Amino acid sequence: MMQECPRCGFSQPKDRFCANCGLDIENYHPAPVSWKVKLISSTWFQMSAVVVVIATLVSILYWKQSDDIQSFSEPPAFEDVGADPSMGEKETETTASNPKTQAPTTPPSASSPPSSPQALQPEKKQAAPETTSPTPDPGIPATAVTAIPNKIQVEFAEVPQTAIQRLVDSSTIIGTDGTVTALLVKNAGSVTDWVKTVGGIKLPGNSLLDLKLDTPVSAKYSNPTTTETESAPHFSFEVHMFASRIQAQTVDLDIALQVQLPATGSGDTSANLSVQDKGESLIVLAGFLPPIETSNLPELNFRGTPLEILYSESYASRNSDLLIIINTN
């Protein structure tokens, strides 16, 4: 017959002593189990502990949620600086809505002025809710908002005819008038760098003007010199511009060009174009100056003006031409 040692659990044939730990099995009396061990090993105690823990967690979560809701919905406290105007407003509105419940009042005396409806009404301005201006979306960068152009710049350059032809082929033609061609050059960057890129030379006469809607602006170059007896030979070169629409990325321009060189025998030359300038682009006008023989130039001083190109040998041989560059910013 097999038996199990009560101390180590070793199984062996029935005997007085355990072959594993040497315990006297017949005279062995196990130590009594303490009440703590009985309590901890009790199933009812374990279930009660689980219920208490769950109830405690639920109570904590409920209390915290109620506290958050109360703090969110509670109106901010204001200092007591006197009578609350809203209380008078409510009392007046209640009295006005229930005229039968009013107590009899003493009729006004002859010396007191009659009460007007405006005097009985409370000031609505105090009860009006405050309006706050909308705040910009922080997710949108500030650079996303493009400013409306308020300046227009006119510059001039002498560029070889071959470069002008390549420019015509690679750009967008936005207007023509006779021999004048208006081109839209996109993403040209700095005018000075762009002129060097196409192999040109900057000419004097840079003009920076204010750009306003429906307001004409002009860049004028002339020498109206006179003597006591008669007028000296003169010239004038003018670029007139008129903006009929100004937006962040679009400007509609009416451009009028005029040059007067009576002493050269070429007469007056003019051109009118309606073009549209777009953001980060240049308006380039080519082919405006009429053919002028440099041998016919009078004793005029074109220095410091765009007509300084008339002194150029390349222009005299028709290998280069004048470019009028307009940029809005």
Task: Describe the protein.
By secondary structure, this protein is of the alpha+beta class. Among the domains are: 1-49, no CATH class; 151-328, no CATH class. The protein has helices at residues 35-40, 43-73, 85-97, 117-120, 124-127, 161-170, 191-197, 313-316; strands at residues 2-4, 11-13, 151-160, 172-177, 180-186, 201-210, 217-222, 236-246, 250-261, 267-278, 281-286, 320-328. Strands 4-5-11-12-3-6 form a six-stranded antiparallel beta sheet. Strands 7-8-9-10 form a four-stranded antiparallel beta sheet, with no helix packed on it. It has a two-stranded antiparallel sheet with strand order 1-2. The longest helix has 31 residues, at 43-73. The protein is rod-shaped. The chain starts with a strand and ends with a strand.
Number of strands: 12
Q: Which structural class do you get from the secondary structure elements?
A: alpha+beta
Identify the quaternary structure here. Answer: single chain
Alpha-carbon distance between the termini?
110 Å
Uncertain stretches = 99-104, 108-120, 139-144, 226-230
Q: In percent terms, what proportion of residues is strand?
A: 25-35%
Main-sheet strand order equals: 4-5-11-12-3-6
User: How many DSSP helices?
Assistant: 8
List the helices and strands and how they pair.
Elements: E1 2-4, E2 11-13, H1 35-40, H2 43-73, H3 85-97, H4 117-120, H5 124-127, E3 151-160, H6 161-170, E4 172-177, E5 180-186, H7 191-197, E6 201-210, E7 217-222, E8 236-246, E9 250-261, E10 267-278, E11 281-286, H8 313-316, E12 320-328
Antiparallel strand pairs: 1-2, 3-6, 3-12, 4-5, 5-11, 7-8, 8-9, 9-10, 11-12
